[in-house]
Amino acid sequence: MDAVPPRARVYVACVALLAVPCLLPLPATHAPWWATGLLAALCTACEHGVRRGFGGTFYPVLLAGAFLLPPSAAALVPLPAALLSPVEHPPVVPRRVWRAAQPALAVWCAAQVHGTLGGRDAVVGRDFPYALLPAGAAVLAFCLVLTALDGGLRAAAGLVPPRRAWRGLLTRTLAPVAVHGLAGLMMAVLWRSPYGPVAALLVLLPMCVSWWVFAQYHRERAAHQATIRALVQAVDIKDGYTRGHSERVGQASVLIARELGMDDDRVEVLRFAGILHDVGKLGVPTRLLRKDGPLTPEERRIIELHPEYGHEMVRGISFLGEARAAILHHHERLDGSGYPYGLAGDRIPECARIVAVADAFDAMTSTRTYSRARPVEAAVAELERCAGTQFDPRMVGALVRALHRCGWHPAVTADEPSHGGGPAQRAPSTGAPR
Amino acid sequence: MTPLRLIHAAAALTAAGSLAVTLWTGLDDRGVALAFGVLIAVGELTRWNASQTRQTAPLGAAGSLSYALLGADAGRPAQHDAAQVVTVVLVAGLLGAVPHIWSGRGHTPDHLARRILTAGFAAVCYQPLSHQGVFAAWGGPAHALLLLTLLGLTSLCGAVLAAALAHCRTRWPFGPLLREELRGLLGIGSAVCATGAVMALAVAVIGLWALPVFCLPLLLVQLSVHRYAAVRATYRQTIASLARATEIAGCTPAGHARRVAALSLAVGRDLGLTGPELTVLEYAALMHDIGQLSLVDPVPAGATAGLPAAEQRRIALLGGAVVRQTGVDAAVAVVVERQADPYPEQPVAARIVRAVNAYEEKTRDAGPTGPLHALAELRLGTAGDYAPEVVESLARVLARPRGLRERVPARRTGLSDPAPGWVTHG
Lengths: 434, 426
What we know:
The structure holds 2 protein chains of 2 kinds. Chain A contains 19 helices and no strands. By secondary structure, chain A is an all-alpha fold. In chain A, helix 11 crosses helix 17 and helix 11 (245-259) packs across helix 19 (393-406). Residues 414-434 of chain A have low confidence and may be disordered. Chain B has 2 domains: 2-231; 249-405, Orthogonal Bundle (Hypothetical protein af1432), CATH 1.10.3210.10. In chain B, the strands form 2 sheets. Chain B has a two-stranded antiparallel sheet with strand order 1-2. In chain B, strands 3-4 form a two-stranded antiparallel ribbon. In chain B, helix 1 crosses helix 4. The model of chain B is unreliable at 406-426 (pLDDT under 50). Chain A: This is HD-GYP domain-containing protein.
């Protein structure tokens, strides 16, 4: 994985060569050397801290440099950070060169634009709101150069096809860089004010805190996702035959939801609904879940409590939203003969109807104690046969269309079919799971 | 409740006096006052409850502090006095609090009192001396440092005030509450201070344009803090749901995990645990019985305290293994694993969970004299099983009036719902 294609190396070398002329007029410029040095040191310190905590780049200092210094001096600011900060992955040399050359070029362009529009005089003369115009133009130039170079690298490294390399990059970077640009402008203004660099340093503190909190947010979110996975694993441990079933139902629910044109948030909720639909089986005695052979009516009644158990468990997790209704109602049937409440037709929540189809589909196409896996075509035929009585025809149609388009290749982390080949015991009418 | 009355009375007196003075003398620099008033009001509108006792409105706090420390507007000396600062903060705070009062969320009087007293403190320290020209010699960078020092002092006072208010409201010990507030100052508190200073200086340099230009970065801070708080809340809910799995599976009685968690937290606070330690304690208490999910035959009524020591330890180890899978902080798994060890070898959190769990199981169906008998039994067991200081702390906590010990949410069913806001920040 560490091998960098020669094309990418050549590209990095070209960008570095482009950056060299930016620094050439340095000896002739009357740059305030102590300011340049201080900004470069600041940039190094920030880069060091931010990279360790989160990754990514810290722009306010760079942009403040672009607003304060002549272009060639401003291009010098990111260099020490690139040469001194640790590189996590080999190869080290091309990465360091890239980290130095890319921001140097971007800052040089930004400073050039800012200077041409008279921004440095506006900063010194505190000419507001005019100072916002050159600053905005400089931020735009900075963003354009950054994304152009980034997209070029992605294309050269063969990560994405050249035509899609630049798509969406600019819109994604513009907003955060604009906020950083405002902080950089405030830094530059305070730097040139009687209060001096001390006041300018204060601007960085809220930005750093924001980065830190953001890093914490990401760590906490990762832990949260691990916990959700643990809930699913707990079910898998109890009900070993259905290993991977939860994840596959999640994927099938996403297929249906996408096909129905739902927005991304709702699709995400449906993924959770699919993953967690059987979480209530935690409350069913393991002996019943693993029982080979026919169930007595009493035992069936106990197993049929699992949607209510599941709803009771996830009721307190507010972000699951309508997924909670899906967990409660995923065994309802369109004709009203399902459980727990015997709802019919439109009274069943839409997401529950989606999960019901996805659940039945995966139950039929995977191996169970009571039945061997059936081919996808047979499962689809069975679903279509029961559409209208048991399943919502709209959801079945969406699943069929999605399967036609992309096929069914469930990728499951723990997918190892374990089957005991017990006596065949079919669930009523279709292969719907118990 | 005397300190609470005292703080409220001081805040009301300050507010009334300032209002009277301002009405008598009239508003100076109306444009500046209006701009800062709008900023503070918007900040207060976006306030949210970080927890039961803490409320967060970084934008409002920074706005009121910077108005209190504003010495000039675009190079022209500012005219407003300390009384006007308090008046503007009061009016903007009241306007911003209307939706919060309307929906009945949070302790708005406490929040307003804190805001008024801290802004008043900063203004009284700065404005009179500034008007007399005492700071004229402190030009340039020294002025920035002076503002920082004043802001640091103000935040210290604010932390003491907040801890005192929380102490009055909850009766949790004052020391750990203050420590927690001071730790909060290092994070978001430092950002608020720095922003207050920067806004005061920037308005002095370029005038009111500084406010919109610098509000955006601060909004970024507020947004990320908000998202962090939201994901933490979600995470707590998920942990509590995982804990309820044992109750739904019928291994433990309904509500057991929640009751143990609430009582453990109260004991933990009484013993002086703070911040992250309390989070670990809460999660461990919620999940302390999760090992029973792995048992083939459930323990009768989930009462593990009466089992032989070896069996207790086996279940604890099973639980630790489950917790390790959940991706929770490894410290939580350690507490769950060690909950059945003899107390000299246990971490503090495990001692608390063990004693509280035993108390909960012994009092469950024991009738009105149950608590006394249970405590007596625990005291007898302090030779090896239960740590004496934890048992004594438990007795202290139980001796408190119930309303102060355990804030019970308004709507709750029998199962272990998370009690809101026990964990403040990490």
